[in-house]
Structures are given as structure tokens and as C-alpha cells.
Amino acid sequence: MQRPPCTTTTSIHIRPSKRPAMPLSSSPSLALALLALVTLTGVLPLASSSRGHGVAATTNGVPPLEKHELLMLERFHGWMAEHGRSYATAEEKLRRFEIYRRNVEFIEAANRDGRLTYTLGENAFTDLTHEEFLATHTNRAPRPEEEDEEPEEETVITTRAGHVSEGPYLPAVDKVPDRVNWTAEGKVTEVKNQRHCGSCWAFAAVAVIESAYAIAKRVQPPVLSEQELIDCDSYDSGCSSGLSWSAMKWVKKHGGIALDSQYPYKQRKDACQEKKRLPHAVSVRDFEFVKKKSEEELMKAVARRPVAVGFDSNDNCFRHYTHGVYNSMCIKNGELVGPACSGNNLTHDMAIVGYVGKGNDKGKYWIAKNSWGKGWGQKGYVWLKKDVADPEGLCGIVATRPSYPIV
After folding, report:
1. Read out DSSP for 243-273?
2. Which of 202, 227, 359, 406 has the fewest CB atoms within 10 Å distance of its CB?
3. Is residue 165 domain-shared with residue 97, that is, in the same domain?
């Protein structure tokens, strides 16, 4: 079986480049001196006039910036403050500024183009190149063991009433509503942030367990522990890789999962702390799969509870997503290209927590809860185009079998 996840917010620790950074102006050394001055003193040289003459005299021998450069540098400092970013050297700060500027120019050009069905914007990744993003936020290595493992008992949603333990709160599968939003129903916990750990598989698994419990018990969802899975789940590989369904299998086998307050998140894999696991807050009696290559079956499943799915998140536009219906198309060199993802490279896991099936001016879409924090996307969520021509779904969300727990 193809190895899905995980796109991650792995630790961003990038060594300064040995190659000279792209200059702010025609003189790299001049630009470096300028940025060093700004870094050390906080003083911004005045902008040049439209005639090319400095509005004021030079500062410490550094000529004034052009107005657009000054505005971009001020914008960069604002972005740094917002995201708590700092750099070890002036050289690295200059390199990050140039990357930030290129990304901002890409974002603004794509938005001006007007052909995308969604909007791009700045976020915590804006000072990374796409290659750095893929290297530090995407785990492409397959899990070394049990790559083709299947669950001991596979069941697919086929019955009218569903599992008897789920109760009358859930609709019968032949009465699927046009739209569902479990977040609006209060059955989804706050968006979390996996940060410096390749643990999207754990976050997606925990998200659907939290919601399944809240729906079945008709209560507010408990905030459960991803760290317990990262440390203790022997089926998966901590911050390196994992599968949502095998995480559910582990929870089932080991009696349940603790609250996050008992076993808090550390953004790294440590030795399993057995004492923190007890008492179990939620137990999982079983886990099930939705039929793959069927968005219709996924809709039936999501009408009953959130479902964990694999996703190809390698598109450069996806990492800049802010709002709208993402359809896997992207602007490259002024051309609309796509799809920029497929079901052959599932690098991430998310929880599908709802959908809009019809009766909306934005068309049909899935509502996916991500694990990159509230500063990404629509306060941590993304709308994914629904009912696409590809039988594997947009970016492979039904390429493999989506999964969910029975609590």
C-alpha cells in the first residue's frame, strides 16, 4: 500500500547559505551593509525620490533605499514581529528577506491574475523557498516496516443504520444532507499546530477520535493527546511518519488515549510515559474505512462524523493558501497550470469535518481541518474542491481509503 503522510511543520533550522544572497540593489555588499545597519540600529535610510535623488543624505555612508524597497523591508519587519522570527546573522536576515520578497511577489501576482478560485497570502512559511518547504515540511520517506499492512478487519459503510453503537444522532446513509459542518455543530476541537514534528498522522487521528466521541456521547469534544501517539504508538514513527488508521488501531489495542492535559504536546518524540497515559479519556472499540476512489462514500461517512484522509500537499500555491475553494490549479510563470497534485504522492493527513454538496455560489467543497495552526488558511481550515473528475479526488483524498474510529 502506498505510504501517505506526512507534511509537517518540522523544525525550521536552516544554515546560512554559503552562496551570496540575491542583492537588494545592484551591489550585494551595499545591500548587506544596509541590512546590517537596519538590524543593529533599527534605522531605515530614507527612500529615494522619483527622480533618483536621495530625499535625505546617506546614513553612515549607506545610500538611501528606493521607496518600494523601503516599503518591502518595513513589511518584512512587520512579518517577522508577527511570527516571532529572528535570524542569527545579518547575512541570513538578508537571504530570508530576499526569499520573503520573492514569495510576496509570487503571491500578489497570482492574486492579481484573477484565475484562481482561491486566494494566497502570507503565513509562517513566507521566508522559505519552495524547496526548503518541501525539505522541512514534507516527509516523503515510506515507513520502513509494515508498508503493506492492512487492518485485521475491514468494514465499509454499506448499511442503512450504520454501527449500532453510534445511536440515532447520526443520519442514515441514504438521507445524506446537502451540507454538513461538524465544527459549527461544536463537535470539533480548536485547530492545533504540529510545529516542529512530522506528526500530521497523529493530529488527524486524534481529531477524528475527539469528534467521534463528542458525536456519540452528545458532549463537547475532549482535547486528546497527540504526544501519546508520537511517543508510544509502535505502529508508526513519531515525528518521522505515520498513518492515521494505524494510530487508531494502536489506540484500540492499548485501551484508549489520554487527554492532552495529561500528556501534553512537546513537538518531538520521547520515550513513552506509561503513567501519563492513565486514566484513558476515550477508548476506541474499532476503526473503519470508507471505500476508496469514491467521494460519494466519503460524503456519506462525513455526514456521520469527521474522517481522516491522505493528501498531496506539494503544490507551491497550497502552502500560501488563505481562503476560497482550493482546486489544485496554480499560477506559474504567468500560466494557469494544474492539477499541481495527485494521488501518487500523499504527503499529509487532514480531517474532513464537513462539506457543501450544493446550493452554494462557491460550488461543492470539502471542509478540512489542518494542523498548521490558526495562522494558516481560514483560521486553520481549507476548503477543497469536491466531486472532481479524478476518481482519486482532489490531491488524492480518496486515493487510499479514508478512515474513522468507532468509540
Report:
1. -HHHHHHHHHHTT-B-BTTTS---SS-----
2. 359
3. no
Contact 280, 138 (CB under 8 A): no
Sign of CA dihedral 187, 189, 191, 193: negative
Identify whether 341 is a catalytic site residue: no
If asked whether residues 83 and 122 sit together in one domain, one would say yes
Contact 215, 170 (CB under 8 A): yes
| DSSP assignment string, 24-53 | SSS-HHHHHHHHHHHHHH-PPPPBBPTTSS
248 plus 215 within the same structural domain = yes
pLDDT at res. 299: 97
Q: 94 with 163, same domain?
A: no
Which of 136, 168, 190 represents a domain boundary (last residue)?
A: 136
370 catalytic? Reply is: yes
Q: Point out the catalytic residue in the list 200, 232, 239, 317.
A: 200
Across the chain, which has 407 residues, the per-10-residue mean pLDDT values are 48 43 46 54 49 44 66 94 95 95 96 96 93 66 42 37 42 80 98 90 97 97 98 94 95 98 96 97 97 96 97 93 97 90 90 89 92 95 97 96 96
Choose one of 136, 165, 187: the last residue of a domain.
Answer: 136
Does 160 lie in the same domain as 123? no
- E-strand spans in 47-178? 118-120
Which CATH number fits the domain that encloses residue 234? Answer: 3.90.70.10
Contacts of residue 318, defined as CB under 8 A and 6 or more positions apart, other chains included, come to 326, 328, 340, 341
168 with 262, same domain: the answer is yes
Q: Is residue 23 part of a domain?
A: no
Sign, Cα dihedral of 286, 381, 82, 196: positive
Query: Are 168 and 280 found together in one domain?
Result: yes
Output the DSSP codes for 166-188. Answer: G-TTSPPTTS--SEEETTTTT-S
Q: Which three cell numbers stand for residue 391?
A: 476518481
Asked if 84 and 198 sit in the same domain, the reply is no
Q: Which residues pair with 287 in a beta bridge?
A: 405
Report how far residue 28's alpha carbon sits from residue 31's, in angstroms, rounded to the nearest whole number.
Answer: 5
Active site residue 395: no
**Which of 314, 345, 348, 395 is labelled catalytic?**
348
Q: pTM (2 decimals)?
A: 0.83
Q: How far apart are CA 146 and CA 326, in angstroms?
A: 33
